[in-house]
Write a structure and sequence with these properties.
Elements lengths: L6 E8 L5 E9 L2 E10 L12 E3 L7 E3 L6 E3 L2 E3 L1 H4 L13 H6 L2 H10 L10 H15 L2 E2 L10 H16 L10 E5 L7 H17 L7 E5 L1 H10 L20 H21 L4 H9 L3 H18 L1
Parallel strand pairs: 1-9, 9-10
Antiparallel strand pairs: 1-2, 2-3, 4-5, 6-7, 6-8
Helix pairs in contact: 3-4, 5-6, 7-10, 8-10
Length: 308
C-alpha cells in the first residue's frame, strides 16, 4: 500500500461456493483485532417456504404465514414437515420410486399394490401395474423439495447471491466504506475455472462498490502465502507444505488433511496470543468449518506481517 493510515481495515476472503470464508481485521499500532469473521453460502438457490397459515393462540388471534423451509410441494403449494402431516397427501417412499419398481418381480408388485390399496384387474402386465403405481404417486403423494448441489448452481444465481449476501454483511453500519485493503484468494488450479470466475465476480463486486472518496486496495493473493504462517510454526514437522487449493489425488490426501489440521492449530495459536480476540477463540472452536475460517484468517495475518 502507498499510504499508512493509523488504523487500517483489512478484509481477507477465501473463495468457495458453499463455504466462502471472510475475516475483517482492524490493524492499529502494530496490533490487530478481528471485527467480523464468518462463512457465507453463495451457492444457495432461492429457498421454497411453507405457505400455510399459523394460527396465533394468543388473545390477538392474528394469523401469520409459516415461512419455514419447505420439505414438500403439491399442486404449486409448499409445506414444511409440520404442515405436511396435516394434509391428505402421503410422503413418497423409496419403494414407490420408478427405479425400485422396475427391479421388482410382479409378485412383489402385487404385494406393494395391496399395501398401498392400489386396485387393479387381473390379468395385468408388469408395466401396466407400474403405471398404476405412478398414477398413485402423482395423485396421492407429495413431491419432495430437492436441494441442488452447490457445484451445479448456475453462475448467474451465484452472482446474485454474492450481491445479496455481501450487501447484507458489508453495508451494515457502513462497514464497506471503512475497508482499506481487500485480499482475495487467487485461484490458479487448472481445474478451478468455475472458482476463477467466482474470484472475478467477488472482485468486481468490490470494484463497483468503491467510492472516489475512499479508495481501496484490492489484491489477488497466492494460496501459498497463508501456508507460510503454518510453516513458521511447524519447522520440525515432516508435513510437506504445498500450494494446492483443492483436495489432491488419494496418494496426497493425508498430506492435504495434515496441512488443514496445521492451519487450524496455527490459527488458534494466533488467536490465543491476542487478548483482543478472546471472543473469537470460542467462536472458532465451536465452528464446523474451522479449515475455511483458518484459511482466510492466515491469509490476512500473512499480509499484515509482510505487507503493512
Amino acid at each position: 500500500m502507498s499510504t499508512s493510515p493509523s488504523t487500517i481495515k483489512l478484509l481477507s476472503i477465501d473463495i468457495g461456493i458453499k463455504n466462502l470464508a471472510f475475516c475483517l481485521f482492524e490493524i492499529e499500532n502494530n496490533s490487530y483485532s478481528v471485527k467480523k469473521w464468518d462463512i457465507v453460502n453463495i451457492g444457495e438457490e432461492t429457498p421454497l417456504l411453507c405457505g400455510e397459515i399459523e394460527n396465533d393462540k394468543s388473545k390477538t388471534k392474528s394469523t401469520n404465514i409459516c415461512n419455514k423451509p419447505a420439505k414438500y410441494t403439491k399442486n404449486n403449494k409448499c409445506y414444511c414437515l409440520k404442515h405436511s402431516k396435516k394434509q391428505v397427501f402421503h410422503v413418497p417412499t423409496k419403494e414407490l420410486e420408478q427405479s425400485y419398481l422396475n427391479k421388482q418381480k410382479i409378485n412383489n408388485l402385487f404385494e406393494l399394490a395391496e399395501k398401498y390399496n392400489i386396485s387393479y384387474a387381473k390379468p395385468i402386465k408388469k408395466q401396466d401395474l407400474i403405471h398404476l403405481f405412478n398414477e398413485y404417486v402423482l395423485n396421492k403423494c407429495f413431491e419432495p423439495v430437492n436441494i441442488t448441489n452447490s457445484n451445479k448452481v448456475d453462475i448467474i444465481s451465484i452472482g446474485k447471491n454474492i450481491k445479496k449476501k455481501f450487501d447484507e454483511i458489508f453495508t451494515t453500519n457502513n462497514i464497506y466504506d471503512n475497508i482499506d485493503v481487500i485480499l482475495i484468494e487467487n485461484q490458479i488450479s487448472p481445474i478451478a475455472n468455475r472458482m476463477k470466475t467466482i474470484q472475478g465476480m467477488v472482485a468486481q463486486y468490490f470494484i463497483m462498490k468503491s467510492s472516489t472518496s475512499h479508495k481501496q486496495h484490492i489484491e489477488f493473493v497466492s494460496s501459498f502465502n497463508k501456508l507460510k504462517e503454518v510453516a513458521k510454526n511447524n519447522n520440525n514437522n515432516n508435513t510437506t507444505i504445498t500450494s494446492d487449493t483443492h483436495p489432491p489425488e488419494k496418494t496426497d490426501k493425508a498430506k492435504y488433511n495434515d496441512r488443514k489440521k496445521l492451519g487450524i492449530s496455527t490459527c488458534l495459536e494466533n488467536l490465543e496470543k491476542s487478548h483482543s480476540n478472546d471472543e473469537w477463540v470460542n467462536f472458532f472452536n465451536k465452528h464446523s468449518k474451522k479449515d475455511d475460517l483458518a484459511d482466510c484468517f492466515l491469509q490476512g495475518i500473512w499480509y499484515i506481517k509482510n505487507k503493512l
